[in-house]
């Protein structure tokens, strides 16, 4: 398992020139750019697992290639502030027949040498044949230590959870009775403007939160397969989702988690890509007075027909850690939007449970 280990070091505290390239509008670190690096790191780890730890570059005739099938989660566990040197690392922790799970970690290193885990996440990588483009077997993991067995078992748990989640998808089965009750309660409280104003809440219809941008995909952002790099798309989606969250809450928000990304198909160089975001759920909790869950969809536009083809789905959660409770409530108007609202509610509940478990640990 340790043969696939890779790391990237970013000396922000000791290199003002490097820090300048990563500084955001608030004087902190651009989280979206760090996510782009994590995707690149996960790809390097996957290739290292397949080629062996002593290979320094990709051979031209490897006969296979690795693609990111999905990003399961990325959870912020601590603040990026103050600015410190960062270490991004990871390794393969589980393999199936044609796929592998890569666990990644972001750590801040202080001047005195103390380390703090800032972010944890998981990438699902799939191996494909270079000629047929069909799935091809990956190298199995050799488990040598008790820690190896623990991590591999954790990967099994994650795989079973993915299967369970797919079985509960609202595209397949109806909402549970508790979810239907929560949706009905939302309608009773905020179904009309008079009831919403009585509760001192501003009702915002989900469709009115739509924010989008359309971009040409230039070759400078290509990966080794001559397609647009998935980490670049992740950064674009992150930045659009952040902007939408700020517009909705009318204040600065903090990234809390990436709740999932699916990569349906590659984005070709030269294509016209439309990114569309919506706030699908908003709430307040004791820990976070403001919570917003955002979906961002990426579609390639066919200029000849005007049709669009979905390439990626991104789901993010942003929060505010202090101040009064959020006074704006996103409300679905159609049945399809209601299902998105429930999916957003599920994501917030899942994130809350994960943070509780990690706090106990």
H and E string: EHHEEEEHHHEEHEEEEEH
Straight-line distance between termini: 23 Å
Helix content: 25-40%
Q: Outline, from the CA principal axes?
A: globular
The Cα radius of gyration reads: 21 Å
Which secondary-structure class do the elements indicate?
alpha+beta
Instruction: Report the uncertain regions.
Output: none
Number of strands: 12
Task: Give the count of helical stretches.
Answer: 7
Mean pLDDT: 91
- How is the biggest beta sheet arranged? 10 strands, antiparallel
Strand order of the largest sheet: 1-3-4-5-2-8-11-10-9-7
Helices and strands in order, then pairings?
Blueprint: E1 6-10, H1 16-22, H2 31-51, E2 64-76, E3 85-95, E4 99-109, E5 115-129, H3 146-167, H4 177-190, H5 193-198, E6 202-205, E7 211-216, H6 230-249, E8 254-263, E9 272-283, E10 290-301, E11 308-320, E12 328-331, H7 335-360
Parallel strand pairs: 6-12
Antiparallel strand pairs: 1-3, 2-5, 2-8, 3-4, 4-5, 7-9, 8-11, 9-10, 10-11
Helix pairs in contact: 2-6
If you had to describe this structure to a student in words, what would you say it looks like?
- The protein is of the alpha+beta class.
- 32% of the residues lie in helices and 32% in strands.
- It has helices at 16-22, 31-51, 146-167, 177-190, 193-198, 230-249, 335-360; strands spanning 6-10, 64-76, 85-95, 99-109, 115-129, 202-205, 211-216, 254-263, 272-283, 290-301, 308-320, 328-331.
- A ten-stranded antiparallel sheet has the order 1-3-4-5-2-8-11-10-9-7.
- It is globular.
- The two termini are 23 Å apart.
- The mean pLDDT is 91.
